[in-house]
Amino acid sequence: MSDPSVPKPDQGMSQTKLPRIGIAYKRPKTGLGKKLRALPKPARVALVIVAILLVYALPLLELPIITTPDSDFAGVLFTMSIYVLVALGLNVVVGYAGLLDLGYVGFYAIGAYTVGMLTSAHGSLPFLVVLPIAAVVAMISGVLLGAPTLRVRGDYLAIVTLGFGEIIRLAATNSDWLGGAAGVSNIPSPPNIFGDDGLFQIPHLVWHGAEPLIDLSHKTKVGYFGVLDAVPYYWLALTVVLIIIGADILIKNSRVGRAWEATREDEDAAELMGVPTFRYKLLAFAMGAFVGGLAGALFATRQSFINPQSFQLLLSMLFVAAVVIGGQGNRWGVIIGACLVVYLPERFRDLADFRVLFFGAALMILATFRPAGILPAGRTKRAQKLRAELTSLEEGTSEGGANA
Amino acid sequence: MLLEVEGLSVNYGQIEAIRDISFSVEEGTVATLIGANGAGKTTTLKTISGLLKARTGKITFDGVDVTDMPPYDRVKVGLCQSPEGRGIFPGMSVRENLEMGAYVRTDRKTAAYQEDFDRVMTLFPRLQERIGQVAGTMSGGEQQMLAIGRALMARPRLLLLDEPSMGLAPKLISQIFSIITEINEQGTTVLLVEQNAAQALKRADTAHVLDSGEITRSGTGDELAGDDSVKAAYLGGSV
């Protein structure tokens, strides 16, 4: 008991002021986050608004270097938004609740097929009505898949979900009612409520070297969903993404987010603390499926044609890759991951067949040098830092209480 | 009686882990289950906290039959277990772990809650020093303290402790045991499962010896500590 670094239990209270308990979920901010937080609130709000407007304006600005030279940039941006949605949804399942889902493409397919069925093959409901229906159908399928399977843990869940993704694709291939191998075509665009000219028209920019010019011959009709111009689809998808990000922030900082975290870290301990872990895992699964279905529905309306080939198993792997590369558990990380997974192969399309090779190499390099992702979740970073500090302490001076 | 266990049997598949166990814990006391590795101590505790299902038997807590209650509901009636070994949330900070302990409480902004937090800080000044540290990077002893502190944050009426001395240095073991006594003196009933029989018997009001899934002896802590066969089997010949 002579060890000075182990205080006796009767000390403490009188010596130091006790910390108060904060109910708010405080996380230490690093780098950019810290600088942002230092700004006064109006400046911060203004900055966020400018950033959002900039993201909306990306396809109009046609920025050199960034813009994909060999494919329609707005189309690429649309696909990126779809993948961002998918990554956000999958992040709830994989990153927050810690459930490895390798069949996420199944929910994406269910969302897309629901749109196909209700707007083209077996009905002609308007898209804006079908969009939430598709998400809910995917969510219900998530509950149906999760209820029996979420009782198994770890690797087994990965295998079960892997099977699910394939079952959905094979069911679509073999069912004539679902369009069979030929798929579903003539899926309508979102309705053009503002007429054929849209609400108003915005010209794009053209760049002559470093000098931007307004290109009056190339305009985007705001609110008009045509076949040629992908920009309105991108805006629609981006709007959905922003709504989902908002919901994600709210839920991650709530009791639900806490319960997921506890379940992920130690399921038995979470149960002992009063968390009904099964219910929370099912909730994560359902919410992930909801967002996946939403992404699939947007994909279907832009594509106007879907078949089982659009929902290969490989897509599931790519989705998981986006989440893992970005940093599972960190919403901004998985957004970056999703963007890279889409953007890199498109940007370097001129490398022809080699682009897949380069893409694979890029993934390997990332996995080696940033194993926790491009933007690791806050606590992963903190844990790493502290572990390093502890190791250096132990190696340096042999402090008595350090190994207590 | 605060806790009554009657005819409890638990299986792991075909293997019977504990067989027809009956004992009770009176409010305000410290009870202990001692026994060798694999005797069924942890199984018994996990069944009382609800992590394991009983095959037969009945568990009554404060007059309520909790045998079929899931673990997350048992916390609400006042049964809280501190799990064996490093059963903390390794990625959360010490503070977040303690807040998780109070997950089922609805009085988070009240003085009563702050009082319980202060109590844990007073019992474990070490946790106060490390309040912002990621729990997984602390030493084994600190993690054990955190596990106990976290269980206390649920304000349990019966605290179930699973091998609190496991893997700790001798001087820390006696420290942990004096804290357990202190917790009991503050009014919490304690059921303690221990391999360290000498320390456990010294602190316990009632004690039971588990051997191959059955209770072979029961008595007060002093009685068992003075018993020759217990001495020979669990205390290395001397207390």
List keywords for this structure.
heterodimer; A: 404 residues; mainly alpha; ABC transporter involved in vitamin B12 uptake, BtuC; two-stranded antiparallel ribbon; 14 helices; 2 strands; globular; disordered N terminus; B: 239 residues; alpha/beta; Rossmann fold; 2 domains; 6-stranded mixed β-sheet; 10 strands; 38% helix; 26% strand
Please provide the count of β strands of chain B: 10
Q: Which descriptor suits the 3D outline of chain B?
A: globular
Radius of gyration based on Cα positions of chain A: 24 Å
Largest beta-sheet characterization of chain A: 2 strands, antiparallel
CATH class of the largest domain in chain B: Alpha Beta
From the alpha carbons, calculate the radius of gyration of chain B and give it in angstroms: 17 Å
Strand proportion of chain B, as a percent range, falls in 25-35%
**Helical residue percent band of chain A:** 55-70%
With strands numbered from the N-terminus, the spatial order across the biggest sheet of chain B is 6-7-8-3-9-10
What CATH first level of chain A would be assigned? Mainly Alpha
Secondary-structure content class of chain B: alpha/beta
The CATH topology of the largest domain in chain B = Rossmann fold
What name goes with the CATH superfamily of the largest domain in chain B? P-loop containing nucleotide triphosphate hydrolases
Count of separate DSSP helical elements of chain B: 10
- Assign a percent range to the helix content of chain B: 25-40%
